[in-house]
Each structure stands twice: as C-alpha cells, then as structure tokens.
Design goal:
single chain, 259 residues, mainly alpha, 75% helix, 0% strand
Length: 259
C-alpha cells in the first residue's frame, strides 16, 4: 500500500518538475499574497495596539499558518478533489477502483501539484519570523502541540473537502467547489474568535477552517487551551469517519463508464 502511494507521488512530482516556469509563477503569487497580508496587518495595527487580545506578532503567526495550510490544500487536497469530480461526472473512476489499493487513499494522492506547495515553505518562514519577533521563545511542549494541531487541521480540511466532493456521487455536477471553498477559506486569515458568535460557530463546526488555522497558531502564542485542542481532535476524527462512510455509500451508487 505505502509503496503504491509512493509511486503515485513520485510520478506526480516528475510530471511537475517538467514545468519549472510554474515554480516562478507560484513564487510570485506567494510573495504577492504575503505582501498583501502584511500590508493589511500594518494598516490595522496602525490604528490599534491589539485586536481582541491578539498582537500584531501573534496575528503574523496566524497568517503564516494560514499560508501553510493553503499550500497543503492547493498542492494535495484541491487537485485531488477536482480530479475526483471530473472522474465521477465522466465515469472514469473505474481506473482507480480496479487498482489493488484503497481507492480513497489513491484518489487523495494521485493529483499532487508540487509547485503549489511553495506556500508551505513561505508560510513556515513567516511563522518562524513571527515567533522570533514575539521574543518569548517557544516551549518544547508548545512545539509538539503546534505539530499535532497542524496535522489535525490538515485532516479537518482534507476530510471536509472529501465530504463535499463525494456528494457528487448523488449530485454529479459540483463545478464551483474550488471557488466556493477558496472564498470561504479567506476567513481563516483571522483568528476565529474575532468573528461574531454565529459566524464563529459556522467556521468551527460547519466549515472547520477556523479550527484548522487558529488552533495551531494558538499553540505558538501561549493561547491554546486543552479544550480547543480536544475539540479540534474530536472534530477531525468525526469528519474523517464521516468522509469514509460517505465515500463507501457513494461507491454503491457509482455506475461508471463500464456499467
């Protein structure tokens, strides 16, 4: 199983490195995004010292985590989701289902876009700069909590998008998934606690991008509580299980091109 997944990833990477101009384009895109985000923070903190208790350095950590998670989404999750939508619509999912491996796992790793992952590196750099700027240092336990919550955030985002995409087994055409998710995901640029109560609930439980970005940032800024981490872990497990169950139910409805 692991060997097959590795082969898929290797083939995708080899395909991507053929188009090195994409590297420069993505690098420019990442730089513009960071400059824009930093400019917005500068404008906000030109008027106030804190934003609901968050300092400019702490919000820079949030921006870094946001950028890292966006890199993961654009490199792994969104390409896989869009490819799955196309395969369901055209009946081409048969090619995956006939392979001697877990189909959901193969679907998740077969469309990696390497250069999109530059945001992972630039986001990590922003987080490192912000942590140094904070000046208090980061305890080893906080680093562990950050790593754990970052992985849980990735599981949350991946499972949520898989759930949305898998509904194509019933609705067939979901052409605007990428645009809708990208629009909603922009809300994660700011800590979820800054939003009104109704929107905070929505960004935590309905579209869990708030937990995916804010909780890792809280781990590095001494704001993380055990309740927040437990909530993130519980929701990640729940969405992963729901994603798996919906996938199996969807396969029972799938007829494919060979039917």
């Amino acid at each position: 199983m692991a060997g097959l997944v590795w082969r898929f990833l290797r083939v995708q990477v080899l395909n991507e490195v053929q188009y090195r101009a994409n590297f420069l384009a993505r690098l420019l895109n990442s730089a513009l995004s960071l400059v824009t985000g930093a400019a917005v923070l500068a404008l906000v903190f030109g008027e106030v010292d804190r934003l609901n208790g968050w300092t400019s350095q702490q919000l820079l950590v949030v921006m870094g985590v946001f950028t890292m998670m966006n890199g993961f989404v654009q490199m792994v999750v969104m390409p896989a989701a869009l490819k799955l939508l196309t395969d369901i619509q055209d009946g081409d999912l048969d090619h995956v289902l006939t392979k001697p491996a877990d189909a959901q796992l193969v679907v998740s790793v077969r469309a990696v876009r390497l250069w999109q992952g530059l945001d992972l590196l630039t986001g990590a750099g922003v987080v490192a700069v912000a942590v140094v700027w904070l000046g208090d240092g980061v305890a080893p336990l906080a680093l562990v909590a950050f790593a754990v919550s970052l992985v849980l955030g990735a599981v949350l985002v991946h499972s949520f998008l898989m759930i949305v995409t898998t509904t194509a087994f019933w609705f067939v055409r979901l052409d605007n998934v990428a645009e809708l998710f990208s629009g909603v995901y922009q809300a994660a640029r700011w800590p979820v606690g800054l939003y009104p109560g109704w929107l905070r609930v929505g960004l935590t439980f309905l579209v869990p991008i708030g937990l995916a970005v804010t909780v890792p940032a809280e781990a590095l800024t001494s704001r993380l509580t055990l309740q927040s981490l437990a909530t993130q872990a519980a929701l990640a497990v729940a969405l992963a299980l729901a994603s798996r169950a919906l996938w199996r139910a969807g396969l029972r409805r799938y007829s494919g091109a060979s039917a």
